[in-house]
Design brief:
The protein is of the alpha+beta class and 736 residues long. The protein contains 19 helices and 24 strands.
Amino acid sequence: MLKSKNRTILPSFLSSIVNSYTQIFFSNNKVFALILMVVSFFDFRAGLSGLISVIVSNSLAYLIGFNRMNIKKGYYGFNSLLVGLALGIYYQPGPEFFIVLLFSSMLTLLITLLFEGVLGKYGLPFLSLSFLLTIWLVSLATRQFTALKVSEQGVYMTNEIYALGGKKLVTSYNWLTNLEIHESIRLYFTSLGAIFFQYHLFAGILVAIGLLIYSRISFVLSLLGFFSAYAYYHFIGANILELSYNYIGFNFILTSIAIGGFFIVPSRWSFLWVILLTPLISIFLTSTNVIFSIFQLSVYSLPFNIVVLIFLYSLKFRERFYDKPQLVTYQQFSPEKNLYAQVNYKTRFGKSLFFHFALPFWGEWKVTQGHNGKFTHQGDWRHAWDFEVTDNEGITYSGDGSLREDYYAYNKPVIAPADGKVEEIVDEVEDNEIGEVDLEHNWGNTIILRHADQLYSKLSHLKKNSFKVAVGDVVKKGQVLAHCGNSGRSPFPHVHFQIQGTPYIGSKTLDYPISHYIIDNGGRFELKSYESPENNGSVSNISKNHSLEKAFRFIPGQKFKLNVSQPGGKKSFVEWEVMVDALNNPYIFCEKYSSRAYFRNDGDLHYFTYFEGDKSSMLFKFFLSAYKIMFGYYNNLLIKDQFPVNTFNNPVIRMGQDFLAPFWIFTRSEYSFHYFGMDDELMQTKIRLQTIALTKIGNFEIKKLKGEFFVGTSGLERFVINENERLTEVKFEHGL
């Protein structure tokens, strides 16, 4: 039991230490963390003090019982790391020092929790505020601690370097120090190193390399932030030496990364705000320097904290222009991932709203009047639809059309477009004879359903005495409510459908989309999602195929065994399990490759939404191939979608794309899916699906992966992956 617990805790604890280093740059990149750890140990005492502080804070956070995920992400460690680095630079090691270091780490953790609680109420980050408060308190207090000795480290730098690496290291250091580069470039690198209290060029160069590896956008933002400040200081005639005083110019670098790409989705707007905020940082930097110099204290990262918090808080009061700039809604600890995920989500689900509506009927109907209609559906009531049933020639009736019963729509079931509660029913209006209208009862027999606060649907012109529900009844999506009639202002049998914000007959309409529907263009079918059916379109809800729905309906707790046959006769065995995370997001988990494929199922379609883990795994190939699957079978129907740019792309091309992404995305990662055939149309089984995932620049293909799925009565039986003409077959074992 103890060994099992250690296997769980130890990796998480090691991750908490590593992530504490990269959290300073809003990152969780392991390579970047290793570089930062090396940089912190350029001064061994400082590096050791920082590491001890992280271990103490994270251990204490775990023992007290704080959130494990926050500990693992380094949230409770990075401020202690900064405190440890600062104290390790300023004081000589000894028993007294390590006692002060221990309790300083404890104090930092407690203050971190304080700021997390206070600022968290407003949806704001605590940044490095706990480091600032702790280091100021400890600095003031230790002036009275006579047993502590101030470090002389760095006074005789050449001697210290000689002790570390001899004459060769001294020669290299002097060459780098005396390198003929512009003053601004030297200040940029030293400011980067100063974030870890390493005030020399080589440390800054290493940090810059790590920053470039972690994020091309962050690297560009660091340049933009610093050199905007450098230009501003020259323009207004300010003292440029202020940037080199303790190299606190890093405030501009950290602010630009935070505002330009971490808390805000990278874009031309976020870059513009980085430039606009530069003078504000300068004002806070200069003014706080004057105040803190009285107490012989450094302002450290105070201007960065103030400006970022003020700006993020101000954005919460916007009433429009929410995407100029746009706040990150789900943090992925990478400006590139934040940007690509946001662009992809907007493309895939941008028109999606919280509540999903279907069409209020079975079978195929024609939109005889859509939004902004020719006869009605105008002004405040313009967002509505009229539906009728037609034959293959587009005629709405049989015979001579003189009777209500001649019309195909008449007496057809009208169903609930979504789950709700019956708010009101009108059921006393007689059906009109053909060609006549009842102007006294405009809407005729009507039902209003309440679906959510300020969200109602209304169905009108229904048949008298055809209602199957009563006021107050709770109804389910697809449940029969009544039948189509010809009551009210209706010369011919049809169904009027609208969505509104109030529960009254005659309420103004809302422009609210239908979640999914099929358009029949003369036997050529097309899927529409989160759109409004247009005039003259022949539309229907998705007619679900039981085998497809079963094959791609993944339920938490479900397990799969896969037999994988790879090129060359190599065989392997993989297990997957459907799980749910703490936020109730379902995903397929592959323990062998420690990978997760997140998905959603809205009843009509299966979507994959996000992948994390090993991209060489079979789960990733399944993610690409089954990215979007509809549960209905329609011959010749082609479904298209898009991947985030960084999901399926050439690494070199992706790196180039990263630099330009805030302004121009020139690569596209596309997905397409179509039905290849059905062997048993009567039983609707033995279905073959083909999918393609590819990345393109213009019309030029960069990468391509083909998938073919075989669906039977038991569900998904097998799938084949074709990657560069190398076939991999995967068979599912069912019944787990």
